[in-house]
Amino acid sequence: MPEAHDAQRYDPNNVFARILRGELPSDRVYEDDECIAFRDVDPAAPTHILLIPRRAGPVSTVGLGEQDAGWVGRLVVRAARIAAEQGLAERGYRLVLNAGPDAGQAVPHLHLHILGGGELGPFA
Known about the structure:
The chain has three helices and five strands, in the order ααβββαββ. It is of the alpha+beta class. The chain has one domain (4-116): 2-Layer Sandwich (HIT family, subunit A), CATH 3.30.428. The longest helix has 17 residues, at 69-85. The two termini are 26 Å apart. The relative contact order is 0.22.
């Protein structure tokens, strides 16, 4: 099992980094100079969009500090805007940030899930 600090090292060849570089295709629904949003290829809800920053790290919320408050806040605001544009705001949606393998984080690149389009049920 890797040590905790190894899990927080950014892998420049992770799938999201490859999407950002255009090496892998994605069904993009939004992009700007700080982030991109695209449909998840294995959706957990009728609408499942991933919002990822263009920056290389931190890999999860574990590595965030006070200096990150601005861009992380903008990421959440963009997620709300994308949810509204996708027609999710009226009935509701869920924003999820997973941190580490025990939380289900599969890709070591900070990312936010936008889930909606149907009843999601209780959460934890």
